[in-house]
């Protein structure tokens, strides 16, 4: 089987939760060897919900697919030395560390670099000064919850998706690859820092929110409407749909599908606004929504869906996660993104591989998450050169954990 | 000035909206030369809101910082040939294309590869079959809106942040760097595909939603509560705050800060649940929230904030975007992420550079977005080898646009 586009790269992950693990998993799913180091018994996220009835975490299994798992008590000096040895073990495409632990003690960049001069270390922080922050505390500070939800919401609406964590994790993967490229050209490693708070702030800047606010414009809540163009949710006879007319082509398609041309022309005449311009569609969103609603609310999705698809309307159907999983072919093995995996400790999971579909280098199938500590012995043997006796002694003293795997196995 | 970690790399972007431009900008902000090609007059996103009073898009300026802009009418065969020439122009670190246009005609991979055998092309699609989808239609299908918002919301709550677009863009940057690394080692380019829909589906899988649903578990709406641990929003005397106790350390800090130890012990006794376990804190979230609320609702933030910080409580304050921009030092030039830039057509913008802080290779300051077509002449001259006369002829025939810049300038 094709080994994957990053085959040969080795990254060590000292991590927990979403950001660092999702970044590390992106690299693992492209074929890199990613070794995740946890304390014996698991890290802070090992039991993170959702969990099975016997407390196996679907979350952990989802975010650590395809990695190796090593358990070391790195809260002790000796354990820290072992972890450092794994991180700095030789190899042209190795010596890469992704972490959301503070770069102190055995994890300080200076300490690690003394063991491997070209080390690449990427530290994910909550705040740029190292202070505590998580996705769910960053989001309130950047204004998004007060812009989310119905206009009469009366208070902030938090997001369910940890978008900042996910974006930070992906940016960490990008940063590691950029630094690895730099190292190949110059021989130089480095320490890279990435703050969750900065990812959120930069995004607000990139989308224009900051420049707008600097000029005194107050962005209002607009409920489910798409800002700046036409987009809204509607009930048809037997389903709820989202319809978007962001581009002129999509707007034309919608007008044609629902025979809106005449009433739209009337609306343009009465308002004096050219609705071929997306900003005007946003201004007139309530009127346009009313027109669309009258045209669709008594019609079943079985009729509207094919009509929309035939004419190129940009739309979708609201589904619950249960409905997605039960009936949507996109969330099944019909979609090459997915395969059924046998996840140790859990059972069969419909699991995704990486969305990136490389024509060369191959698209690896999803590989289950490891059992906790599954690779402790193997990694200590191959990367640190420890004997079975040394490994047994470490286990006996509680410095490492995981199933016993002797050299002969 | 240090040139940036990707200095020497050249990427061409044939793109619009959020996903591809944000991915391309990530590379530009690390020092790559990123040439964005648009139709004369601008692409579908050129006037995307928010806009200035004279219709300059803050959105476009935010997502295209640091790029070069070339305007070519690539809807014509001759224009397509010009664009293809730019994409496939020689250079060891060049021949890279990021696009969300369908790979047809002059943009087909086979056609472009005939001009440059080692071309790397990354095509972002809405759906994996090439069908139309945008962030705002993908989100409803994956179940998130029906999990967002107050428990009595009565309908879906769309997200304001185009999280799927942003994540896809970041993943595109990762994919391009992975492919470039592969090419460096093997000489081989390739076509990479990335579907927005797949990014969302994979994320649902990675966070455990799919496995949970496969087992018949129905995820409920929980309003502003953090799923699976303790986290909630509260009103204190003069502000609204988010408080999170995801880890035991954060929970202990919260209990200490608000003198909750006794009442928590009572709650544990009454419920029979050990609240040191995050799942139990989630089960008892309403009771815990009531306790926290009584302790803080009459106290001003000026008292609670320092108390929380001193004891290591994980918390933040809800702000509007206006408040963020007006008073939060994190959203100012106190934060090295930001600098004041002079954006052509708009004026002064507090703009972010990339959140990745590379110790070596340097952190570039934010560079304004180009004027539309600002680099048309320069790029056609240097990459395609056209003379001033040839360029003038193309402009005369409407095939290119942008300010005239002669070779001597």
Which pair of chains has the greatest number of interface residues, and how are they split between the two chains? A-B, 152 and 153 residues
- For the largest beta sheet of chain A, what order do the strands appear in spatially? 6-5-4-1-2-3-13
Give the tally of β-strands of chain A: 13
SSE string of chain A: EHEHEHEHEHHEHHEEHHHHHEHEEEHHE
Structural class of chain A: alpha/beta
Explain this structure to me?
- The structure is a homodimer of 409-residue chains.
- Chain A is an alpha/beta fold.
- In chain A, 38% of the residues lie in helices and 16% in strands.
- Chain A has helices at residues 19-28, 58-63, 77-87, 109-115, 135-141, 163-186, 196-206, 209-214, 248-257, 261-271, 278-283, 285-296, 301-311, 321-327, 376-384, 388-396, and strands spanning 10-14, 33-38, 68-72, 96-99, 120-125, 190-195, 230-235, 240-245, 314-317, 338-343, 347-352, 357-358, 400-401.
- In chain A, strand 4, helix 4 (109-115) and strand 5 (120-125) form a beta-alpha-beta unit.
- In chain A, helix 1 crosses helix 6 (163-186) and helix 6 (163-186) crosses helix 7.
- The longest helix of chain A is centred in the middle third of the chain and has 24 residues, at 163-186.
- Chain A starts with 9 loop residues before the first strand and ends in an 8-residue tail after the last strand.
- The mean pLDDT of chain A is 96.
- Chains A and B meet through helix 1, helix 2, helix 5, helix 6 and strand 6 of A and helix 1, helix 2, helix 5, helix 6 and strand 6 of B.
- Strand 6 (190-195) of chain A pairs antiparallel with strand 12 of chain B, so a sheet runs across the interface.
